[in-house]
Amino acid sequence: MLRDVRRARLPVGAGRGPWGLRGLRGLRGLRGLRGLAQLVCLACACRAEPGPSGTPEPTAVAGGAGGVAEPRRAPDVLYVPTPEVVVDRMLELARVGPTDVVYDLGCGDGRIVIRAAQRHGARALGVEIDPALVAQARRNVAAAGVEGLVRIEQRDIFELDLSPASVVALYLLPELNVRLLPQLERLKPGSRIVSHDFDIAGVVPLQELALRPDPAGPRHDIYLFETPLRRTP
Ligand SMILES: C[S@@+](CC[C@H](N)C(=O)[O-])C[C@H]1O[C@@H](n2cnc3c(N)ncnc32)[C@H](O)[C@@H]1O
């Protein structure tokens, strides 16, 4: 679906969350995600709300220990949630299990990390820059009863040490995936990277999967990579 936004072809029925594409259909004239991301940032300052106190393993980063800080900068991509059925396929493809530590870079409402804990028993970290989504994700984690396994941090994904992760989930943009490469390349050998809709230019995927959960809806592509990453010749 992000792919479609990039082409300024906003699909019908995409996005159910606060920044789903539904509310952005009127912006067909805007080309590219960057213009949309600016709108998201302006709006997220208005939507900021205090988060719940106390998430496991506090960190020294503002917004990381359960507080919700003002956004330091605009999100690099707008929020479009991954449909639940695609989330499940992503986690299956990445062979997520109880020994895994799953990171979702730009976690939105937390659905991927919550599912990783609920269905696969994994520990998980959701990282999100938008304070309202951080608060929403923390509420969802609490509602799902997985606070013992899942932590949500308000952070910039480009300032994140990925070394504790064994699985990294992405639903970003092609250029952001490439920007993350220096961080992704430092993952432990045997770590999996699973990306919704976009591959990583210059890297050979281990597996690719296309699914169309709604026959009338868009196609979803899933790309699986494993470290050490194999560069295209
Ligand atoms: C397309 S959404 C994906 C949400 C979720 N991963 C999913 O698949 O349902 C991308 C998310 O990345 C967040 N984001 C954008 N730039 C970010 C950054 N630099 N650091 C952290 N989060 C960011 C956005 O706010 C948005 O929620």
Task: Summarize this structure as a short list of keywords or feature phrases.
Rossmann fold; alpha/beta; binds S-adenosylmethionine; seven-stranded mixed β-sheet; 233 residues
Radius of gyration: 17 Å
Q: What's the CATH topology label?
A: Rossmann fold
Number of helices: 7
Query: Based on CA inertia axes, which overall geometry fits?
Result: globular
CATH class: Alpha Beta
What is the number of domains? Answer: 1
Strand line-up of the largest beta sheet: 3-2-1-4-5-7-6
Percent of sequence in beta strands: 15-25%
Rounded to the nearest angstrom, the distance between the terminal CA atoms is 29 Å
The appropriate CATH architecture is: 3-Layer(aba) Sandwich
- The CATH superfamily name is Vaccinia Virus protein VP39
Give the % helix. 25-40%
The counted number of beta strands is 7
Rounded mean pLDDT score: 80
| Sheet with most strands | 7 strands, mixed
Query: Low-confidence parts, pLDDT < 50 over ≥5 residues?
Result: 7-63
The small molecules bound here are: S-adenosylmethionine
